[in-house]
Design a protein that fits this description.
There is one protein chain. The chain is mostly helical. The chain has a single domain, classed as MFS general substrate transporter like domains (Growth Hormone, Chain: A, Up-down Bundle), CATH 1.20.1250.20. The chain contains 16 helices and no strands. Helix 6 packs antiparallel against helix 13.
Length: about 425
């Protein structure tokens, strides 16, 4: 008797109502955060005309983010994850409101203190993001069944990147009007994210197998990640690729010095990596990466480094858009594979802590990478610093390929 093989359903996760509300929240929150990055980057470069000042945005956010992340992971495993997200996003509204106040014509804060108040607020946002980054992916895993983790990771990544396309474009257009108008729209999007999130029912806290002190809880989470070659290899690869290969933080400087364009064009430059990621996500929804996941992971991170180098040497605005598009397209393959590994290999009661470690590796690497880009640009020049980052990414891929055989031979079906 012939057995019928079930057809792959690329929209399976989207048939879950609560997951749709989750994606809606993800979309508006991403819009807001991506807008905020463009607004602040353009505002600070407009004030200072200094690449290092752009890098300091990332450092001011990364330090508090790293400090709080492990603790936030512990909290996400013992307290309602929905409650953590609601409180954290509410604080994000307050933080963005402070940035709005600084930008009003009636405010003298920036005139008296320069960019220091903006860095201070971004430090607080780093703390807020630490809690969001721990609770958000852990909460998502409670909404969808295990067999749909890979599919949900693809759609989650897709929605994030759609927001990351639209957000910078909107920010670039509105910044041409005023910074205060841009921050106002930013706050509206954050409020919309909360309004969508309240429709998701709160989920029970996963039961721990044994009681642990805070110190023991944090130690168990770290030990779990560092003892799992698949998780550690995927996180490390993304960490160093983003740390050295990211050119996004320097885009305001590229827009002004190399490409000679304004805030609107900067918004499109910032949107291009996400647009490339969306195209990849659509392909992965229909043709998920499973059997040769490890090989594809290394290949695409390496190509991300190559595209970064080509972006650095481009002096044509439209070619620069294309190469940024490619960086996002290649990067999203590793994003989907990494998220799927984390979802499949992590026990429910440890998701908050593992998400926190993931955030330290990946989330903070964007901000520290921004600082590294600023320092490198100051030391060796804007273009050479990005070329250096692309070369380092390729070397890191080669090194990780050699020392992580399990990741190299990864077949996602075998850990489901």
């Amino acid at each position: 008797m012939q057995t019928t093989i079930p057809k792959h359903d690329p929209f399976a996760a989207l048939r879950i109502k609560e997951f749709l509300f989750f994606l809606n929240t993800r979309f508006f929150l991403t819009l807001a955060i991506q807008m905020q990055s463009v607004i602040v980057g353009w505002q600070i470069y407009d004030i200072t005309k200094d690449e290092l000042a752009l890098g300091m945005i990332g450092l001011s956010e990364a330090i508090p983010f790293i400090i709080v992340s492990l603790f936030s992971g512990h909290v996400a495993d013992i307290i309602s994850r929905k409650l953590i997200i609601l409180i954290s996003v509410s604080f994000l509204i307050l933080s963005t409101s402070a940035l709005l106040y600084f930008s009003l014509d009636t405010s003298t804060v920036l005139k008296n203190y320069g960019t220091l108040p903006i860095y201070f607020v971004f430090g607080f946002i780093g703390i807020v993001r630490g809690f969001i980054s721990a609770a958000f992916p852990a909460f998502m895993s409670q909404i969808v069944p295990r067999e749909l983790y890979a599919n949900s990771a693809t759609w989650n990544s897709s929605v994030w990147h759609v927001g990351a396309v639209i957000g910078p474009a909107i920010a670039g257009i509105i910044c041409a009007i005023s910074f205060s108008a841009a921050y106002t729209v930013d706050i509206v999007f954050i409020i919309l994210s909360i309004l969508s999130f309240v429709f998701i029912v709160s989920k029970p806290i996963p039961v721990k197998q044994k009681k642990e002190t805070l110190k023991q809880s944090l130690a168990v989470g770290i030990k779990f990640v560092f003892s799992n070659q698949l998780i550690l290899g995927a996180l490390s690869l993304d960490l160093f690729a983003v740390l050295f290969g990211g050119a996004v933080a320097m885009l305001p400087a590229f827009a002004v010095k190399i490409l000679h364009v304004g805030s609107m064009e900067l918004g499109f430059l910032r949107a291009m990596p996400a647009l490339g990621a969306i195209v990849t996500a659509i392909i992965l929804a229909y043709k998920p990466v499973t059997k040769n996941a490890g090989r594809n992971l290394f290949l695409n991170v390496g190509l991300f480094g190559v595209a970064t180098i080509f972006f650095a040497i481009s002096t044509n605005y439209y070619l620069s858009l294309f190469f940024l598009f490619l960086t996002g397209a290649f990067d999203n393959v590793s994003v989907v594979i990494r998220h799927t590994i984390l979802q499949l290999a992590t026990p429910d009661e440890m998701r908050g802590r593992v998400s926190a470690v993931n955030s330290i590796f990946i989330g903070s690497s964007n901000e520290i990478g921004a600082f590294e880009s600023g320092v490198a640009s100051k030391a060796m020049g804007l273009v050479r610093s990005v070329i250096f980052g692309g070369i380092m990414t390729i070397l890191i891929v080669a090194g990780t390929f050699k020392i992580a055989p399990k990741l190299r031979k990864l077949d996602l079906k075998k850990i489901q």
